[in-house]
Design brief:
heterodimer; A: mainly alpha; 8 helices; B: alpha+beta; five-stranded antiparallel sheet; 16% helix; globular
Chain lengths: 205, 95
């Protein structure tokens, strides 16, 4: 075995051979780059298989972070979101006077709460609309009955007038307390003495 | 047009060349580089240089034994024929 000087020099065809060597190498490097970006580190492989055990507060490499982002997007549970913001559950329970702290942060509110709140608002509006409808119906009913009462009163008044005219009655005003009616005062009869008064001419026999 | 790289000769001389390929033979662990200076020779052919790279990747080896050279020629032929050689591990050149 002999040792020869290096580097070795070859005369190659530019298009058929040189470019082919380049293309093969560039393709291989491109694949390596893509695989390196997509593949996670072997030490964190178990974490990927067990997403629940991922420590969201620890720094993650790009590969695992991408997977975790996917997991977060796919499983937006309240526990994951609360853990992601490093806010312990105990603090939420202790601050009972401020229950709205978490719910007011739009970042923590799961997307599922928005349709729930909208449903509740719609339900309230529907109930209000129903109540308004019931009120309207009731008002209409009352108005109708009042009209009927007024008609009856008018009829009663007319009937009373007829009775008064027929029997020569007179309307009397009520006294101040409105509870006692004054008895009708009859018209005074003619003085009986006047009946036997002789006419001025006297009687003729 | 390939990537231009800076290479170190064994004597310390630094020069710029166009990278053609850079890989490692898995069975021997040796690294080799193909590069060109775009020197045109007769019949429109271009010179391509083949050299072993030191383990630290900083310089080109001054010598190559016949066995390694024969092996490299066989590998180059397999590359041109499109055969996938599992013994070849392509490496990204880092200056």
């Amino acid at each position: 075995m002999s040792i020869q000087n290096s580097p070795k020099v070859l005369a190659v065809d530019k298009n058929a051979q040189l470019e082919q060597f380049k293309n093969i190498y560039n393709n291989a490097i491109s694949k390596l780059t893509v695989e390196a970006e997509a593949a996670p580190l072997p030490s964190e492989q178990t974490e990927i298989n067990e997403p629940k055990a991922v420590d969201v507060t620890a720094p993650l490499d790009n590969g695992v972070q991408n997977i975790f982002d996917t997991l977060v997007d796919q499983t937006p549970t309240n526990a994951d979101i609360i853990a992601a913001t490093s806010e312990p559950v105990n603090a939420q329970e202790e601050s009972a006077s401020e229950p709205s702290t978490i719910s007011e942060e739009p970042v923590l509110t799961p997307n599922t709460d928005v349709p729930t709140q909208s449903a509740e608002i719609d339900k309230s509006l529907t109930e209000n609309n129903a109540s308004q409808t019931d009120l309207a119906v009731l008002i209409e009913k009352i108005t109708k009955e009042m009209t009927e009462v007024m008609v009856h009163c008018a009829n009663a008044d007319t009937l009373l007038e007829e009775l008064i005219e027929k029997y020569g009655l007179k309307r009397e005003k009520l006294n101040s307390n409105g509870t006692e009616l004054k008895p009708a005062t009859p018209e005074p009869l003619e003085d009986s003495a006047n009946i036997f008064d002789e006419p001025a001419g006297g009687m003729h026999m | 047009m390939g990537m231009n790289i800076e290479l170190n000769k064994a004597n310390g001389e630094i020069f710029t060349a166009e990278l053609v390929s850079y890989f490692e033979l898995v069975n021997t662990g040796k690294k080799y580089i193909f590069y060109t200076l775009n020197e045109v020779v007769e019949n429109g052919l271009i010179k391509m240089y083949v050299s072993e790279v030191s383990n630290d990747g900083n310089s080109l080896a001054q010598q190559m034994n016949d066995e390694d050279w024969a092996n490299l020629k066989s590998i180059m032929k397999s590359m041109l024929t499109g055969n996938q050689n599992p013994n070849i591990k392509y490496l990204k050149w880092e200056s």
